[in-house]
């Protein structure tokens, strides 16, 4: 009995201890769970708060970059630099047409298009050129208030990475840096300026926040650089400064995009109060700091804090768990469910942020980062054998896109980009991965089999997407595109290299006339490398004076004279490379045009010919002018300085231009030609008949002579149509009191035909080949008749 009682007591004690241990364990576990749960709530609140703060901060930073990028059409514009560098005030004090142009294209356009309430044009040293308020000219009062912020922004814009666009290299320019001081050594006036893949300068920029009369405003500065003529950046660039109020419109867009319905901006009247509140740690807000570090205000909102909601829903279950253990399971389920909803919300926010980072804001297409990630994955799958077929990269660039921006405005250009994106999505196969790299560049990724045949099929499909015109701002715009295609892993397994090869093929398509596609071949890569080598060597040859000039006589006929006399020569540029030998002009002249060397090359040619021919016997000396050279801003001044330095008589010089020059900015060209004629130069229209041959050009400007293109002469003995055209051109020239020169005459039969047609001057191998100055000079002796050498001997000279 006693044993049974002791056993029952012991069993009861064991049960009590077990119950106590269980109870204490439940209490300890409950306390641990409460502590852990409270800690998890704080972490969830902190993560949500930090995520929201990062989203708001990134939105403000993206607004600054968007404001600067939207002004890219103003910041990269030859015409803008030309007007800025022109006199802005008349001698009497009134504004010139150049200043009124700036008022319209910069001040009013920035206000009407980008809501820029304040805008300024300033020098690199911070000197104000022009100020506008709400699109109208303004005094310098607002600029003085903002000068303390503009100066640091100008300095910040010169830091690496502060570039609009995708720079691929930098060039050293002899211009004054933003921080250079007048009178400093020459080295401090040099600056490395970024250039893009096309060789054009990319604008520098910087932005920040500043306090204005309207509260807090976004302020950006951007350098105005040329988009075509690199020679225009011969001195420190001018900067375009704009401010845009952080107004309710921007706050509303921030609420909508960030899903924060009660987000608001607080700007206290007392800056000291802003500094005090901003320095205090406060949830669900970010302080707004000016460029100089001063506190401006803050953006605050009611955060999506999951902690209190979780705690309110889980607290009853926790207390029930202490009383009844099975309730722990129920409480745990509720907590897990609440946590799952919270996590899903956080995951959704993170997914939205990742989507924004990998997609283009304008079109919604994947951006460069996303495309390169996808391309890397596809190539890796091919290399490992997980996927079959080739990976095709199609690089697309719209032709004449800048013309749409210049004629219809940048809003029309943006709409065109969006419609092109939709057209590509609709007309290309659904499996294609289409991305936008920026500007008017799109890239298509496709997996398929067939190598070059598949590449050609892709190219034709892309070309067909542009068959129908686009409806933009009430206009039907026909747009073409150029495309370069490469594929891997056959051509390369490296994503960057594969994209580079597609870009090279795109360049070849542009070079061949645009509105076409080209598939990459290895000779393209070799050709690109050769072009870069020739560009470097040509630049060195110009500096080292390694070029030369040959002269081809021009024979004139008067009346029944069958022998003719040498009336002049045409100067022809030659390059005898020390290693490559003689390089044809049709090879190195395009290299000079694409590499920005045409102005230097043309000026070298003029200086050499003027200096060499200054003391020759009386005769005409013809020199070809490049369109790029003729449209240079200071060309007339340059040629006038050469005349003064060499002492050549301008009346002896015949400057030859082609018809294509007159199509681009014909008013400017005609003005330059008129100035050259006033100096004494004579102007010849070269290669007449091969281009547009508009008779209006002959009426607008009195050319001294016209030169018939050699394409009409090559088969003129048997081509009746060519003979008829030749006679018509010769008759037209005589009627307009212009001399007519037939070039490319190589046979006696051709010579007889062109003379019978009425051409008074002949140039070609029938009489003379190009020769050195030493060889041609004795032939210009007036006492030496034309028949002192037989024609056959002349031909082989």
* Contiguous helical run count: 25
User: Which segments are poorly predicted (pLDDT under 50) over 5 or more consecutive residues?
Assistant: 177-189, 788-797
Cα-to-Cα separation, first versus last residue: 145 Å
Number of strands: 27
Largest sheet, in brief, is:
8 strands, mixed, barrel
Helix/strand-derived category reads: alpha+beta
Strand content: 15-25%
Report on the structure:
The protein is an alpha+beta fold. Helices cover 48% and strands 20% of the residues. It is built from 25 helices and 27 strands. The strands form 6 sheets. The chain has an 8-stranded mixed barrel with strand order 19-20-22-23-24-25-26-27, surrounded by 4 helices. The termini are far apart. The relative contact order is 0.05.
Provide a compact summary of the structure.
The protein is α+β, with helices and mostly antiparallel strands. 48% of the residues lie in helices and 20% in strands.
């Amino acid at each position: 009995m006693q044993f049974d009682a002791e056993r029952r007591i012991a069993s009861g004690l064991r049960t009590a201890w077990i119950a106590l241990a269980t109870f204490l364990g439940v209490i300890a576990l409950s306390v641990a769970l409460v502590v852990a749960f409270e800690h998890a709530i704080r972490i969830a609140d902190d993560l949500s708060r930090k995520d929201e703060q990062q989203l708001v901060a990134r939105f403000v930073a993206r607004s600054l970059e968007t404001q600067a990028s939207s002004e890219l059409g103003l910041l990269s514009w030859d015409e803008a630099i030309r007007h800025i560098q022109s006199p802005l005030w008349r001698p009497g004090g009134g504004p010139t047409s150049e200043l009124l142009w700036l008022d319209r294209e910069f001040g009013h356009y920035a206000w009407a298009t980008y809501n820029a309430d304040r805008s300024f044009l300033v020098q690199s040293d911070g000197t104000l050129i022009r100020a506008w308020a709400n699109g109208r000219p303004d005094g310098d009062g607002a600029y003085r208030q903002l000068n303390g912020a503009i100066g640091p922004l100008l300095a910040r814009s010169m830091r690496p990475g502060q570039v609009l666009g995708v720079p691929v290299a930098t060039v050293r320019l002899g211009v004054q840096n933003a921080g250079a001081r007048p009178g400093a050594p020459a080295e401090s006036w040099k600056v490395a300026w970024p250039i893009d893949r096309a060789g054009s300068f990319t604008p520098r920029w910087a932005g920040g926040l500043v306090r204005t009369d309207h509260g807090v405003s976004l302020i950006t500065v951007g350098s105005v650089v040329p988009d075509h003529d690199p020679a225009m950046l011969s001195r420190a660039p001018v900067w375009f400064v704009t401010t845009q109020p952080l107004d309710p419109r921007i706050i509303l867009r921030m609420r909508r995009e960030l899903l924060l319905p009660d987000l608001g901006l607080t700007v206290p009247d007392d800056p000291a109060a802003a500094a005090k509140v901003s320095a205090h740690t406060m949830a669900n807000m970010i302080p707004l700091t000016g460029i100089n570090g001063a506190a401006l205000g803050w953006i605050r909102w009611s955060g999506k804090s999951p902690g209190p909601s979780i705690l309110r829903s889980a607290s009853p279950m926790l207390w029930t768990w202490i009383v009844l253990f099975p309730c722990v399971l129920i409480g745990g389920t509720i907590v897990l469910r609440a946590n799952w909803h919270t996590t899903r919300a956080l995951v959704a926010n993170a997914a939205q942020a990742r989507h924004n980072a990998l997609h283009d804001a304008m079109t919604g297409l994947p951006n460069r980062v996303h495309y390169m990630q996808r391309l890397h994955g596809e190539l890796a799958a091919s290399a490992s054998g997980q996927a079959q077929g080739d990976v095709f990269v199609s690089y697309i660039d719209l032709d004449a896109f800048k013309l749409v921006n210049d004629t219809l405005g940048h809003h029309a250009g943006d709409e065109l980009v969006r419609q092109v994106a939709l057209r590509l999505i609709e007309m290309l196969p659904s499996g294609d991965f289409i991305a936008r790299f920026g500007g008017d560049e799109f890239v298509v990724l496709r997996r398929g089999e067939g190598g070059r045949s598949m590449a050609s099929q892709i190219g034709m499909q892309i070309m067909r997407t542009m068959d129908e015109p686009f409806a933009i701002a009430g206009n039907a715009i026909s747009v073409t595109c150029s495309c370069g295609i490469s594929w891997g892993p056959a051509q390369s397994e490296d994503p960057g290299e594969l994209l580079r090869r597609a870009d090279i093929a795109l360049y070849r398509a542009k070079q061949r006339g645009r509105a076409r596609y080209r598939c990459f071949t290895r000779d393209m890569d070799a050709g690109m490398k050769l072009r870069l080598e020739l560009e470097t060597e040509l630049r060195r040859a110009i500096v080292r004076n390694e070029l030369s000039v040959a002269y081809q006589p021009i024979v004139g006929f008067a009346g029944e004279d069958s022998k003719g006399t040498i009336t002049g020569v045409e100067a022809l540029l030659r390059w005898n490379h020390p290693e490559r030998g003689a390089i044809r002009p049709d090879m190195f002249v395009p290299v000079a045009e694409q590499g920005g060397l045409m102005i230097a090359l043309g000026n070298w040619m003029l200086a050499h010919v003027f200096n060499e021919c200054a003391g020759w016997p009386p005769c005409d000396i013809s020199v070809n002018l490049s369109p790029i050279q003729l449209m240079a801003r200071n060309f007339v001044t340059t040629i006038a300085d050469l005349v003064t330095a060499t002492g050549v008589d301008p009346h002896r010089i015949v400057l030859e231009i082609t018809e294509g020059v007159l199509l681009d900015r014909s008013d400017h060209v005609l003005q330059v030609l008129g100035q050259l004629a006033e100096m004494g130069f004579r102007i010849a229209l070269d290669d007449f008949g091969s281009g547009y041959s508009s008779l209006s050009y002959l009426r607008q400007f009195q050319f001294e002579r016209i030169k018939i293109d050699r394409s009409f002469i090559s088969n003129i003995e048997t081509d009746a149509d060519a003979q008829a055209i030749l006679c018509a051109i010769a008759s037209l020239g005589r009627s307009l009191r212009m001399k007519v020169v037939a070039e490319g005459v190589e046979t006696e039969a051709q010579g007889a035909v062109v003379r019978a047609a009425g051409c008074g001057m002949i140039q070609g191998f029938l009489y003379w080949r190009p020769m050195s100055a030493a060889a041609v000079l004795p032939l210009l002796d007036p006492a030496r008749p034309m028949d002192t050498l037989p024609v056959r001997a002349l031909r082989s000279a």
